[in-house]
Amino acid sequence: MSTLRFKVVEEAFCKKPLEVPQPSKRPSEYFGEMVFNNEKMLRYLPGDVYRKLTDTIENGGVLDRSIADAVAEGMKRWAIEMKATHYTHWFSPLTEGTAEKHDAFIEPNGRGGVIEEFTGKLLVQQEPDASSFPSGGIRNTFEARGYSAWDPSSPAFIVDDTLYIPTIFVAYTGEALDYKAPLLKALRAVNKAATDVCHYFNPDVKKVYSYLGWEQEYFLVDEGLYAARPDLLLTGRTLMGHESSKNQQLEDHYFGAIPPRVQQFMKDLEIEAFKLGIPVKTRHNEVAPNQFELAPVFEECNLANDHNMLIMALMRKIARRHGFRVLLHEKPFKGINGSGKHNNWSLGTDTGIGLYSPGKTDNDNLRFVTFIVNTLEAVYHHNGLLKASIASASNAHRLGANEAPPAIISSFIGAQLSKVLDHIENSNNDDLASFSKKHGMKMDIPNIPELLIDNTDRNRTSPFAFTGNRFEFRAVGSQANCASAMIVLNTAVAEQLTKFKKAVDEKIAAGTEKTAAILEVLRDEIKDSKPIHFEGNGYSDEWVAEAKRRGLDCESSVPLMYDSYLQPDSIKMYEDMGVMTKKELEARNEVKWETYTKKVQIESRVLGDLSMSMIVPTAKQYQTKLVDNVYKLKQLLPADKFNESAKKDLEIIDKISGHISYIEERVHDMVEARKVANHIEGNRARAIAYHDTVAPMFDEIRYHIDKLELMVSDQMWQLPKYRELLFIR
Ligand code: ADP
Ligand code: MG
What pTM was estimated for this model as a whole? Predict the structure, then answer.
């Protein structure tokens, strides 16, 4: 009998919620308490230093080294008052997580004691031993220098006893080895391009911000059950497990009452998030059992992204306090929904205008249409690249399944907006030009209601949907760093707006009136970007066929999706916008292919180990019991009775034999396929081999394991079952 499984199930079932005390202060009173934000800068920095620093933050320039010491001194004073003893540069290397190395503030004072010290030099730049971070060959291990440099646009914060300083991470030779450095460059590019285009409509705009509001989905599993599932522990997902008889079919979990133990976890998480200045706002049950969602109010993209990285770390930590493990994997369980991270994205000006919000005047509406159409055009031209930006070994289980956007990027904009674009496309050029000349700014754009009603009833099957005042990129994976998608999206829109500006300016220079010029260019773009525009059901088979006809990227193999990064027009886009060089793109692809291979390799090993050391022996044990039973029946019963009674057992014995031999053979084949793949030279080719020859065996082997789970006595089955993992909370 499997005592461990029953023990952990019983323990999990009996756990009481850990009551989190209500803070004595209101959230507005302790929000940002642990952040070196504007209020603290004012308090801890000399006036001139404060002004120079806020100027750097606002305008994105390089930090004036002459003030670095004063900033460091102020930060240290605050940190020590907050009882921090250590500091760390905090960055996002090309792995899924973040990296930190803590140093104490102490320095010897020369008389056998220590003093607390923190200089500008330590704040601004450090040289972590970077040899173990992925670099895609940019650094040789003997020349492993990489350095981290402070990003003043994301404020420092304290967790436990440590001051965290958000930084970029770059090679000694200047190439980015992280997500933040290219993200900041992409944001700079879109700021420049969008500000220039805004000037057609409003000369006062000085800056355009990119905004991100992420929605984080996740599962919670009791930690005892989790520990008894080596596949969850090592790969983040279950590699086997028969569906529970009850799943999500009653739709009783979505928006349902939050279970008390989970509620306490959420409360704890929110209190910590508020202290760290993360404006978490929404919490609810998601569709699948034990699946939940957390969403903040949107923020400037770089800050929002740091906050998402931070919240994922916080979730992992706080879940443990409550006896849970949080699963951020995109598809931890077969047969029920996986987890995504919708990226709500928009642009807005320093004058407070949301560029994807229609306005009251013709001028506002033309500006609105301009940004919509250029975004569609950008997404159209780089649809393969956008898909590559969200592709990973784990997200691949979600894309294309009937719960998430398909592995094809398209955009839904709603009936009202579609009508507006159709109208612009079909209106007569000459008419429009003379019309707008005669009427000044007045144009023949149908009135766009300020509230785009049909976008409240959104098309959930669209991977890139317009939702009233923003686009929602839904294909992003739950454990991904949003920066990957945000780098592509912002760069692509920056490139497209730059092209648009050039085309309009050329027409104006040739004598066309400004509004007419804008409309003419928009009309061409509306026509050109048609293939990306899709209002129908993205989950249907017809759409796949239709998307192929339209020439959209329909590649479904993750290693091949990554090729998009190295297409000439992608490289050109990144280089023209000053975001990444060809060398950086190549290096990052090496990392992506290698990561893909490693993930599939680990899953394959775990599946093989569990099959041979747990599943097959358990099945054989049960089979032996049945055989014993048959023998005993034979001794006991007269022949005719025996034949009748033993028939069922003999059938099961035979079926078990069949499943066992299939599993044994397939695991052997899988090991052989790995050996062949491991000998292939080159990260790309190896990843392709893993995708084509190793990964497909997972489901085949699993099928037989899951059949055994249904046959073998529940008493003997060792791995916690889906009904236990998903319904105990
Ligand atoms: P839903 O689940 O209906 O899509 P949520 O309320 O869960 O909506 O999340 C929507 C997210 O979109 C929130 O983070 C919200 O702040 C963000 N958001 C709203 N308006 C904008 C905008 N203009 N730009 C970027 N993000 C936005
Ligand atoms: Mg959403």
Answer: 0.95
